[in-house]
C-alpha cells in the first residue's frame, strides 16, 4: 500500500523568501505524484504532477517540484513567495488507472509581510 | 464552464437525520470520488465510482452510501448522521486512464 508523509505541519516564511515543502512517499513501485493547494473555503487545485521523465517538473504560479527515486521524495519549491501563497499544500500519490489519490497530512503555509 | 459542482455549500443538521449531497461534473470524466476532510484537514477517500463499479473504502461506516444516475453525477447519502460526520465532503472526478483528479469546492456538514 502507498503512503505519503509531509513532516512539516506548519511553515511560516516572509514574503519574497524561498519556500520548500517536503514530501516522502512509500510505495513498492514509483507512483504518480502530485502537489495540490487548498485556499480557505475552497476545493483542492492541482499545482503540478509527475508521471515520468525529467525529475524537475514545473507547475503553476512559479512552483516546481523535484522527484528523487533514491530518496522516495517529491519536494515542492518556490523561489519567492507572495502573501497569496498562504494556503494548505498537499502531496499525493496514485497508482494510476483511475485509482484514488492518497494524500499526505498537508502543510499549512503562512506568508508574513 | 467545465468543472465539478457540489451542492449545498453548507448544511447543518441534527443527530439521526438523513442528509444527501449532490455532485455533478461537466468534464466528461469516467471516474468520480468522494473524499472526507476532517477538522485537521486530513483527506480520506470514501468511494470511487467508475463505469458502475463501486470501490468502497473499508473504513467507511455503512450509513454512508453513494448514488449515481450516470457517470456525470455522484451523490452522497448519509442515513443517520452522527457528530463525527461533521466534516467537509469533497467530490472529485478524473479521466479513466489518467490520474489527475479535479475537485469541487466541498460541502461543509455540521451535525449538532
Which structural traits does this protein have?
heterodimer, A: 113 residues, mainly beta, Immunoglobulin-like, six-stranded mixed sheet, four-stranded antiparallel sheet, 52% strand, B: 112 residues, seven-stranded mixed sheet, 0% helix
Characterise this structure.
The complex is a heterodimer of chains A (about 110) and B (about 110). Chain A has one domain (about 5-110): Sandwich (Immunoglobulin-like), CATH 2.60.40.10. Chain A is globular, with a radius of gyration of 13 Å. Helices cover about 0% and strands about 50% of the residues of chain A. The mean pLDDT of chain A is about 95. Chain A starts with a strand and ends with a strand. Chain A has about 110 residues and is mostly beta strands. In chain A, the strands form 3 sheets. In chain A, strands 2, 5, 6, 10, 11 and 12 form a 6-stranded mixed β-sheet that branches. A 4-stranded antiparallel β-sheet of chain A has the order 3-9-8-7, with no helix packed on it. By secondary structure, chain B is mainly beta. Chain B has one domain (about 5-110): Immunoglobulin-like, CATH 2.60.40. Chain B has no helices and 11 strands. In chain B, strands 2, 4, 5, 6, 9, 10 and 11 form a 7-stranded mixed β-sheet that branches. In chain B, strands 1-3-8-7 form a 4-stranded antiparallel β-sheet, with no helix packed on it. In chain B, strand 4 (about 30-35) and strand 5 form a beta hairpin. Chains A and B meet through strand 5, strand 6, strand 10 and strand 11 of A and strand 4, strand 5, strand 9 and strand 10 of B.
CATH third-tier fold name of chain B: Immunoglobulin-like
Instruction: Characterize the main sheet of chain A.
Output: 6 strands, mixed
What structural category arises from helix and sheet content of chain A?
A: mainly beta
Q: What count of domains describes the coordinates of chain A?
A: 1
User: How many β strands of chain B by DSSP?
Assistant: 11
Please trace the helix and strand order of chain B, writing H or E for each element. Answer: EEEEEEEEEEE
User: Proportion of β residues of chain A?
Assistant: over 45%
Query: Which percent bin holds the helix content of chain B?
Result: under 10%
Amino acid at each position: 500500500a502507498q503512503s505519503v508523509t509531509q513532516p512539516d505541519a506548519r511553515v511560516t516564511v516572509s514574503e519574497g523568501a524561498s519556500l520548500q515543502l517536503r514530501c516522502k512517499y512509500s510505495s513498492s513501485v514509483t507512483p504518480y505524484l502530485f502537489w495540490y493547494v487548498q485556499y480557505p473555503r475552497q476545493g483542492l487545485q492541482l499545482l503540478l504532477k509527475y508521471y515520468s521523465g525529467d525529475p524537475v517538473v514545473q507547475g503553476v504560479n512559479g512552483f516546481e517540484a523535484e522527484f528523487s527515486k533514491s530518496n522516495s521524495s517529491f519536494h515542492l519549491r518556490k523561489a519567492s513567495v507572495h502573501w497569496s501563497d498562504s494556503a494548505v499544500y498537499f502531496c499525493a500519490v496514485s497508482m494510476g488507472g483511475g485509482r484514488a489519490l492518497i494524500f499526505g497530512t498537508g502543510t499549512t503555509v503562512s506568508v508574513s509581510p | 464552464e467545465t468543472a465539478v459542482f457540489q451542492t449545498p455549500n453548507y448544511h447543518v443538521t441534527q443527530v439521526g437525520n438523513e442528509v444527501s449531497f449532490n455532485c455533478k461534473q461537466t468534464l466528461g470524466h469516467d471516474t468520480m470520488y468522494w473524499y472526507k476532510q476532517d477538522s485537521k484537514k486530513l483527506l480520506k477517500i470514501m468511494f470511487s465510482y467508475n463505469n458502475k463499479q463501486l470501490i468502497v473504502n473499508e473504513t467507511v461506516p455503512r450509513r454512508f452510501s453513494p448514488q449515481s444516475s450516470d457517470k456525470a453525477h455522484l451523490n452522497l447519502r448519509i442515513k443517520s448522521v452522527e457528530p463525527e460526520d461533521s466534516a467537509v465532503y469533497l467530490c472529485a472526478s478524473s479521466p479513466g486512464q489518467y490520474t489527475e483528479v479535479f475537485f469541487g469546492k466541498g460541502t461543509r456538514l455540521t451535525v449538532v
